[in-house]
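haha ok so turns out i had the wrong file open the whole time. this is the CORRECT one, sorry everyone. sequence first:
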Amino acid sequence: MPHASPKPTFTFGLGLAMLASLLLLIGGCGSEGGSARSQDRDGSPERPLMVLLVPTESGQTNLMDDYEPLFSAITRVHGLHFDLRMGSSYAAVVEGMRAGQVDIAHFGAVTYHQARRAGVAELLAVAVVDGEAVYHAGIFHRADSGMSRIEDLKDKTVALGDPNSTSSFNYPVAMMLDAGIDPVRDLRGVLMSGSHSASLSALQAGHVDAAAASVSAYDKMVREGTLDGTRVVLLVKSDPIPNPPLAMRAGLGEEVKARLREVFATIHEQEGVRPEMILAYGGALADRYDSAIDDEFIAPALARLGAVTAELRQELADFANRSRPGRRG
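then structure:
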């Protein structure tokens, strides 16, 4: 029987400093103290499960808009309650789960790998859209740039997103490496924009020659009218990448984890749940959420990203500080 329940709680812009305050409020900033208090969170109205969302292509508010209908539907149908908050960086999301103060988080493949390697996260579910649980990264350019292939990026300026982002940083860098382009030595400059949308906006404004972002981010900005799809076009698209998964804290009780897997796998079938409530990464309508996935689903993407080492990410950050692509006419 459906429960008449309030919508999840929302908080925006949770960075590392604010996260530290949250840890104190929820119960201890150390992992041991946090773990003791985190066991109290069971999805009841008094002890909602803490959900932290990683910022993506279109800003914090839009990401909350993407996930609010899904979590609200689960609350209404199953009586599980959630406290949804926005992290201001990928690092905040990983640290929140590492500290035991975040129960569910939205990850990219790279960020999930960091949390999984630390032993603090397990896969919960991934969105299936048009029968597939994958999306694509892209490198975009202006239609009048004269470029036609990835090799044309040599001696050009490129905007990249967050260094922990799979599709706005790591995958595009891996694609350049595969094409024989050393991004530190062969590019004229790098702009570290911090997000998909900021990279695409910088490209449209003429600050850079190319931009890395997910194709879904590009499509959403075009739909919303914030990007001119006739001026900014795709130069090259990646191989399929696993959709950004939802993961849960490894230390959650087994009964809670089993229940979460069940409700995410079946929420699309429940009475009163409309298709527009089941949204995926980038606001796309999802067919359903698949909770039968395992780490093998993400393994091929992680293997492809092996060449994008921490050292290379740091070199690119240093290069960006030196090159500082500016506004060009």
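The longest helix spans residues 60-78.
again sry for the mixup
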